[in-house]
## 1
Amino acid sequence: MFIDLFLTLKKHKVPCSLRELLDLIAVLKKGVVFANVEDFYHLAKVVMVKDEIHYDKYDSAFAEYFDGVQKIDIFDNLVPDEWLRKEFESQLSQEEKDKLKALGGLEALMKTLKERLAEQEKRHAGGNKWVGTGGKSPFGAYGYNPEGIRVGQDGNRNNRAVKVWDKREFKNFDQDRELGTRNIKLALKKLRKFARTGASEKLDINTTIRSTAQNGGLLDVHMEPERHNAVKVLMFFDIGGSMDEYIHTCEELFSAAHTEFKHLEFYYFHNCVYESLWKDNTRRRTNTVDLAEVIRTFGSDYKVLFVGDATMGPYEITAPGGSVEHWNKKPGVEYMQCITNHFNKVAWLNPQPEIHWEYHHSISIMKRLVDDRMFPLTVDGIGRAIKELS
Amino acid sequence: MFNSTDNYIASDELRLAVNAAIALEKPLLIKGEPGTGKTQLAEELAKSLNCKLYQWHIKSTTKAQQGLYEYDAVSRLRDSQLGDERVHDISNYIVKGKLWQAFEEEQRPILLIDEIDKADIEFPNDLLQELDKMEFFVYETQQVIKAKQRPIIIITSNNEKELPDAFLRRCFFHYIKFPNKAEMEQIIAVHHPKVKQDLLAQTLEVFFDLRELPGIKKKPSTSELIDWLKLLVADDVAQDVLVNKKSDIIPLFGALLKNEQDVSLLEKLAFLNRRNR
């Protein structure tokens, strides 16, 4: 049961294991939902998906599964007849039930139906035919998917349900990241600055022993605050254009940094930093943040990390109006200098292989702007950058 | 079965998630923007199912062991120095944690593990066995504590830390979406039944506009809106103050905005508005 759904989810890279599948079946057995595809959608989401960043993948997987479901043989042995019958009967009016008896009872009807289904090759093309083709005909009500979930009968409800996953409301959450960030995390770990602040929660053994001894053996407990990572990081990501091919690496870096630092802020820019940045790439035209505001907001103790290939026309950095996207009054150099002047520690990570750097004039300009602190986006390069930052 | 209560509106999806978790006796992990009623869910669930609620609020210093039990070695040492009789029985110094208390309950209780992401990164891993088998071993007294009734466990998270996969596998998961306007009206009707319809429409408009404001640091959420409405009703703010957006700054905005940068942003916008008039 539901093996196809499980495999579709796997195909769409929703991380789920056999355990979740067994859970799903167990929940259905308990009868939490019955014969309602919208509820089934939500229930399977609750059971199979463990993080909202996977909701979007789940939605598209479910849409695919839902479409595909109607192409599968409806009367496979998977569905206990009982399920169908129960739901079926509940949908019939008294009049229809009488009529049914006249036709030789439900058993006979089911048999005829099965035979007819076997003949009907056409059904593969459009399961829709049966979905909501009038509740009156007993066959019309048979808009089941193979796993005992009602598809049709109530046309409106069905439409609404489909919309739920076709809306894909959670697209923004999906960072499409891969596990494999462990190396990067380890490199980032070096950027830790432990500080003891806050309430005293931990036993300070040395002081306790000393003062207990001074007390003539009467216990005198001393506490100290626990240490934690106090480092603050601000990241600027170059996005779009020539960066597209490095998206995967950048995502890994982002996801690793996200878990490693408690105080992490990030902004996007394109090619070179100009007067405005943005946080949400889908709304980059409408939702920008002034660079001046960023500088005002974050103290100079934030460690700044640029991620970008710095591959562009040199005029994009040096000339007013050099931006490929808009008219910038001041050249990119000035905005870069604003950042490097304000923040104490700045480094740049470049996904371009280091041996290519000398062939791009813009890279050497950028490199000079960040005081030669440009490093390749490799585990080793990150390690070196972190060393500069700390 | 869990349903919306007198002062809590649960969406269909949330109800389904809770019921599924109850049916299969699995912990339910709830995420969502701050102020969308994650913690309140456990309280309302306890009310609606009429069972006892144990709340375990997690702090950055909380250890998993504290939920099970703590061995108060320090007071035992002190007692031994003072020659107290209690010192011979170690169980006098075992302090029961929330999990233990919940396990001992005869009636199925609810256990809320609030803001699990605040704890150390290893915290959820330390609870795997306890949540799975609903039992643990007390080393000091050599006894196994087993749940008499598997408690309904509600876990909330604000996404500050990622939770380990092994832990997630043992939970059901639900993300509370921010309510839309229609749901918001329902929620407000539950909290402030007396609010006039037109005033409500205006406040919702201002509220959702404010949430859309670019550059806002902490978007106001449901609980802030409800507080704000309370103030508006208490102060009897004239409706036209809200209607005429250009007239002035949003009245009593302090209830909605909790960040001084957001407040100054709003003041700046109001200033620009005045100048443009």
## 2
Amino acid sequence: MTNTMLDFVIVSIALLAIGIYGISVKRNAIRMLFAVEMIVNAANLNLVAFGRFLPNSQGQTFALFSIAIAAAEVAVGLALIIVAYRMYKNVDIAEFRSLKG
Amino acid sequence: MADAVFLGLAVITIGSAIAALEVRSLIYGSIALMGTLGGIAGFFLLLDSPFVAMFQIAVYIGSIAVLILFTVMLVRRQLIFIKIEDKRRRYAGIGLMLSLMMGLGAIILSSGIKTVTTDEPPVDFRAIGADFLTYYWPALILMGFILAASVIGALTLARREDLTNDQHNA
């Protein structure tokens, strides 16, 4: 294998930093969801990279669990965004002021 | 040292991650997000984990990215193109991103990870299946329940009660 573990970890760090930038700067709810996806993917890449270089199978197993849970999280997140959009006619999170039903 | 395939994948992944957050239109943004997710799937292939890569393509590009695309299309057109953000907050965010990259990078570089490489054969995906069905089977069942519960919860959340009332009245 020509690539060292360091290369994968550096890509993962870059993706994590971009995701944190997106979460802290963007006010559009859908773009914040993009940023969350990037952070989850950085974590998955780390899991698989460590699992490959140790080597054992648990890294891949845990990454598969993580992908499935991320799918559930996106489904609920998008449903919340749609409900909030229906109530406020906006996707700007600064406008979602009240939690009244 | 990294090879050409790795460098190409890294450029695609990081570049489309930045594009997904910074492109003006949300539709192009979600297509760029597909590029990031596909790049990660490529990294999984480089790491000799084809099973996880297939799962990534099926779940992320096949369902999550398409779901996001449909949600974006449900939103009003002006909101797709509008960019709402503070200038000052943006510079602070860029500073946070760079300091995070440098800090974590310095920690990783000073650790012993730099020299780690492997000549061992990759893990067979049969070992993953065996893991799932022997040691981790309670977690697998729990994951199935969580997925079912989240889909039902999402459907319940997004249901429109006013529409059914209108139909009864008419």
